[in-house]
Design goal:
This protein is mainly alpha-helical. The chain is built from 13 helices and 6 strands.
């Protein structure tokens, strides 16, 4: 079941007056059928729909046989294809996104990283999972929670209260607490493997592609309640062209050629789990590598990114894999 609501709330701190917090945005919880995305699901699911003459995400005998999973997992695969922005969630027709065509290929071309072997692909998938906002918990935790609470640590109970508050502030619809608990569990399984408590299902859990990024870890303490940390930092391992592509994509989607540093940091850098310093260093690397596309100025303390017109944005992503 999927629950939606709209949100609009004000913050007291000027630091938290973030543009995306003031937009009316739908919340969407569940839809994953309690399954986190497995390593091979995106490629297998996309290939299935490419080869199917009729685009139908509802489980049927043909889909179940081709994908080799049960009916609930078929629904889950369809959910993750949309959540990761592999297929256009807003289209009733089957429509691959530009990123999907580059990574996974199509009917006439081979993908450039269809088996998700490149770390840059994983960072891009993580960014799209957050920025697409099809599955709300990802942008709410990596974006709103981090910025509003000004902390990198959380517990399951703390996140449950936070998500409940966001929903209750904007909707009169009832939201089942178990729905949010299920979302939180899937969220954690997307990024973190608890070796001690998941020995029996370890192979299955490590099969989640984004675990390799090490974005979330668990703090070692004596408390009975598990405390997790979002590992924000400089992250020099994030490929510069991937960050550049996401900046250009954000620019195109928002029809902006001038973006303040704060807007970039709070809408792009935060999803890459970059600190303020990390976001600025990443931006410096981007402008050094792509000076003809992106410029960064810091005049009298006013930091701003200027994007040139006429850029073929997807060519930046293609160039990354072809280098």
């Amino acid at each position: 079941m999927i629950f939606s609501s709209t949100r609009f709330y004000k913050t007291r701190s000027l630091f938290l007056q973030i543009p995306n917090l003031f937009n009316m945005t739908d919340f969407r919880f569940a839809g994953h059928e309690t399954f986190h995305c497995r390593q091979q699901w995106l490629y297998k699911g996309l290939n299935h729909f490419i080869l199917t003459s009729k685009y139908d995400t509802a489980p049927n005998d043909e889909t179940i046989i081709r994908l080799g999973v049960g009916a609930n997992m078929v629904k889950s695969i369809s959910h993750w294809l949309k959540a990761y922005n592999i297929i256009d969630a807003n289209s009733k027709e089957f429509r691959m996104t530009p990123e999907a065509k580059v990574i996974f290929g199509g009917t006439t071309i081979n993908g450039l990283d269809q088996y998700l072997e490149d770390e840059g692909t994983l960072w891009l998938l993580h960014y799209m999972l957050c920025s697409t906002k099809f599955a709300s918990i990802y942008h709410l935790i990596f974006g709103d929670y981090v910025l509003e609470k000004a902390t990198n640590t959380f517990t399951e109970d703390r996140i449950l209260r936070f998500l409940t508050k966001q929903h209750n502030n904007t909707s009169k619809l009832n939201l089942n607490t178990n729905t949010l608990k299920s979302d939180i569990k899937v969220f954690l399984n997307t990024y973190f493997v608890d070796v001690k408590s998941n020995v029996k299902s370890l192979d299955d859990d490590y099969n989640a592609p984004l675990v390799a990024l090490g974005i979330i870890s668990r703090l070692e303490n004596d408390d009975s309640e598990k405390t997790y940390v979002i590992n924000r930092g400089i992250h020099l391992n994030i490929p510069t062209p991937i960050i550049a592509y996401c900046i250009l994509k954000y620019s195109d989607e928002n029809n902006k050629r001038n973006i303040s540093f704060d807007e970039y940091s709070q809408n792009i850098g935060v999803y890459f789990t970059l600190t303020i310093e990390g976001a600025e260093l990443a931006l410096e690397r981007v402008t050094k590598k792509f000076p003809h596309f992106i410029n960064y100025s810091n005049n009298a303390g006013i930091k701003e990114i200027q994007i040139k017109d006429g850029i073929d944005t997807i060519s930046i992503l293609e160039g990354y894999y072809n280098d």
